[in-house]
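Changelog-adjacent note: as of this version, every example in the card shows the full chain rather than a window. The one below runs 234 residues end to end.
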Amino acid sequence: MSVAVRTALSDLLIANAITMHSKKSNWLVPTALIALSMVPALAGTIRLAQLASNAAITPENARFFASPLPVLIHVTSVIVYSVLGAVQFSASARRVRRGWHRTAGRILIPAGVLAALSGLWMTQCYPWPPGDGALLYIERLVFGCAMVLSIALGVNAIRRRDFVSHGAWMTRAYAIGLGAGTQVLTHLPWVVLVGGKPGETPRAVMMGAGWVINVVVAEWLLRRRVHRSRTRDP
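Full-length structure tokens:
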């Protein structure tokens, strides 16, 4: 085999390895986001199964049996929003099908709005379950409204063809929407170290931490993206 042929094969193998690594890395973030959303999605699915099977009514689920439509809308819209939204973070998906991002966005926007508004409705109209309190009530109102506002600003940005602002606002909305997944993690220390159900204040702190962590991470990623784009420009 000639030196030229060996060199060409070596370059081809290196290029394929880089491509495969790039494809895998492009799906790491979406896979992690989907995994993060699985626990609350499973919990919501179990809740819907209880409603469908006329399970025993308890103080924790009585409000859902009294008015099942909001929780049905909330669970289904959150699952669609969290799973489909995760795929939007894959550069590979956008490259393979250029219309994918736009088509998925037309589903994600109403799903996100429904998830936020149904969550706000339940916060405002459902009686508080044991363990909830005024602080958690305020947190849900603040972050629910922030999610709706972020989606609205994202839609306004895309109408102005401001793709950078559109991506930033939709990322913020998704971070808030995925708060339930992070809240599972923020509750783990309490479950491991203390056990039992937390009181109103510890529960509010752990729930709020889930939203705050997601928002902080989203802002860090957005600032990092801006910094990278500035360093590339001459």
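Structural remarks: The radius of gyration is 22 Å.
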